[in-house]
């Protein structure tokens, strides 16, 4: 039995569900945002019968025993949302109970075939750990993969010293996705190209409030978005250099509205080897990798999102990622091994 854990609004699950239905696979979808409304739970350990942990969907009466799970796709679980006239203190307590039970469910099954992981993904999202890991992999010598020079600091001295080495930098957010600028308006935080004078003029009071994540700016020929499912690779070339300044050239995510110049290509063999090594070290079976290819064809690793978005690539280029996810959960695609 395959267990899919997500939320009701997650459209990435839909094509995988369609594929699992098409081939007649046995699966159960658990949406955690209304877990208290849509599901019944029954976990028992006693002397009179064998252990079991049943979850039943109240709407279609479909049932799963977590002890029978063979693969898990932990796509995008949300914190439960309770709507009630009870006092806020009771709602908060009930929410904490549900959130903890949700985590218990997510971490109950110990299996080899998983995409997304209740604890490993959080570690794999750590950008400092990502860059450090690549730096100790001998990635340049083994795979021809570089990383940008990087500083994360909350003092102006470190930033001023870093500014002496390069003429332009990329400033990236660490954890925030956006800034609230008006009551009903948020400003997304994107990577930006800035001249070294900006770092030279940084104010110590401001940077102490929010540490700066700064990398050397790489003049790119094009970019690669590589989605990996087990040991299958799907590579999209993004010619972001063709996009306008401030509308995708520096951060291709800003190019959605104007249309991304992208092509489905074969994955370079050296990047396949690099990615397999990387995924084994982080114990992940899925990842969305971002690379820059510079003007002299050097590959620069930027980051890996262990639970990244991929549906736009499938829609735009017809890349069968959802089918690969379904096949992996059924055991038809190998896991990454050392």
- General form: globular
Measured as a percent range, the helix fraction is 25-40%
Structure class: alpha+beta
Number of helices: 12
Question: End-to-end span in angstroms?
Answer: 27 Å
Instruction: Give the spatial strand order of the biggest sheet.
Output: 8-19-18-15-16-17
Strand percent estimate: 25-35%
Main sheet? 6 strands, mixed
Q: Average pLDDT value?
A: 88
Count of beta strands: 19
**Measured on Cα atoms, how large is the radius of gyration?**
22 Å
Give the low-confidence spans: none
Please write out the topology.
Layout: E1 2-6, H1 13-22, E2 27-31, H2 35-38, E3 39-44, E4 52-57, E5 63-65, E6 71-74, H3 88-108, E7 113-115, H4 120-124, H5 127-135, H6 139-143, E8 145-146, E9 150-153, H7 156-162, E10 168-172, E11 178-182, E12 185-188, E13 192-195, H8 196-200, H9 204-209, E14 212-216, E15 220-229, E16 232-238, E17 262-265, H10 269-282, E18 286-294, E19 299-305, H11 311-317, H12 321-329
Parallel strand pairs: 1-2, 1-6, 6-7, 8-19
Antiparallel strand pairs: 3-4, 4-5, 9-14, 10-13, 10-14, 11-12, 15-16, 15-18, 16-17, 18-19
């Amino acid at each position: 039995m395959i267990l899919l854990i997500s939320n009701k609004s997650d459209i990435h699950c839909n094509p995988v569900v369609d594929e699992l239905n098409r081939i007649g696979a046995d699966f159960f979808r658990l949406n955690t945002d209304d877990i208290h409304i849509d599901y019944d739970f029954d976990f028992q350990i006693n002397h009179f019968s064998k252990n079991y942990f049943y979850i039943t969907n109240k709407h279609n009466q479909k049932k799963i025993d977590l002890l029978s799970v063979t693969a898990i796709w932990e796509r995008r679980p949300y914190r439960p949302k309770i709507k009630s006239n009870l006092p806020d203190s009771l709602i908060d307590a009930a929410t904490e109970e549900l959130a903890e039970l949700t985590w218990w469910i997510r971490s109950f099954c110990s299996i080899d075939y998983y995409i997304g992981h209740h604890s490993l993904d959080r570690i794999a999202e750590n950008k400092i750990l990502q860059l450090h890991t690549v730096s100790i992999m001998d990635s340049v010598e083994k795979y021809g993969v570089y990383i940008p020079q990087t500083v994360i600091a909350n003092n102006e001295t470190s930033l001023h010293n870093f500014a002496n080495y390069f003429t332009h930098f990329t400033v990236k957010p660490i954890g925030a996705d956006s800034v609230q600028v008006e009551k009903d308006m948020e400003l997304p935080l994107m990577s930006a190209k800035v001249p070294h004078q900006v770092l030279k003029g940084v104010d110590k009071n401001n940077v102490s409030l929010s540490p700066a994540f700064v990398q050397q700016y790489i003049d790119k020929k094009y970019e690669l978005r590589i989605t990996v499912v087990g040991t299958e690779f799907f590579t999209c070339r993004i010619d972001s250099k063709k996009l306008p300044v401030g509308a995708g050239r520096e951060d291709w995510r800003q190019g959605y509205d104007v249309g991304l110049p992208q092509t489905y290509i074969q994955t370079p063999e050296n990047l396949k080897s690099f990615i397999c090594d990387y995924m084994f070290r982080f114990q992940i079976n899925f990842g969305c990798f971002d690379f820059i290819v510079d003007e002299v064809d050097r590959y620069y690793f930027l980051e890996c999102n262990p639970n990244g978005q991929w549906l736009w690539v499938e829609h735009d280029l017809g890349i069968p990622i959802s089918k690969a996810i379904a096949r992996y959960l059924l055991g038809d695609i190998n896991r990454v091994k050392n």
